[in-house]
């Protein structure tokens, strides 16, 4: 039977008992029975401050809720605390904003000289193979993210262990127990709460590493629809031609990924309020290798079909992929390099991993 860190809170009793606790959390911070983490922690210490990226989604009478302005955390926010606890679900994807917030919390705790306790959580799709080129320092927008591939596939506790040699906070991880890392969060009978509006389903989470690359272009990725990251479209896009091209890719021919033409009107993001012609991406299985390639296939196909209409923010695309001048690369070679780099990252992070 799987438990997240919050369900194993007794393991941190010596650290938390009678202490003034600051809690970094969001709507995903619940125990197995959906009790809010702040309420669970109140049974050990005094929760004096809840720090969250979206105060509207965290409802509690336990302590004052402070909304964070982006994925940052100043040491001053820890004034009067004895310990800082972090409890947020993560996707294991480098551009997930919870990653930058966790690292900021570690740095703030180190500067304030208080313990940083991670209540670890399972990865929503299980332990996928890492994929992607490690992000060069020059392209890293958030401190501490250099060296991570697009899909790094570490839990929040493992990520903290990987990052801490450079940060040197007093790190303590309350581990996950009983996790079958070959199954999804639901197959492990744990709560699934969408960590962001764009990650409303496990299918969207699966497509996120690859399709998020298209947020650097003037196409909709389905934000403001019921299928974020499952839809790609624009008013100028030819969905049928795009499907025909994608059906010839290795993923399309394998039967693991299916594409169909569609039309939709996004209510947020690129092309908001406009009728978009495009595609919907269907996965045969959530657990499958090389999810990053799905987005690369779509991006390169769009570049070939609609070079005149497609507008790409080159700086943002480089920050997402870790590759400068992406379209000058041979796609087959790029995919092979991403796979090799992911395997090397998995080997290098063995010491940080808590679960196999």
UniProtKB/TrEMBL annotation:
Lineage top rank: taxon: Bacteria
Per UniProt, residues of the Peptidoglycan beta-N-acetylmuramidase NamZ N-terminal domain are 21-201
Which InterPro entries does the UniProt record give? NamZ, NamZ_C, NamZ_N
* Ranges where the Peptidoglycan beta-N-acetylmuramidase NamZ C-terminal domain occurs: 207-355
> What Pfam families does the entry give?
NamZ_C, NamZ_N
The record, for PANTHER family, names: HYPOTHETICAL 460 KDA PROTEIN IN FEUA-SIGW INTERGENIC REGION [PRECURSOR] (PTHR42915), PEPTIDOGLYCAN BETA-N-ACETYLMURAMIDASE NAMZ (PTHR42915:SF1)
For this entry, the protein name equals DUF1343 domain-containing protein
What's the source species for this entry?
Answer: Lacticaseibacillus jixianensis
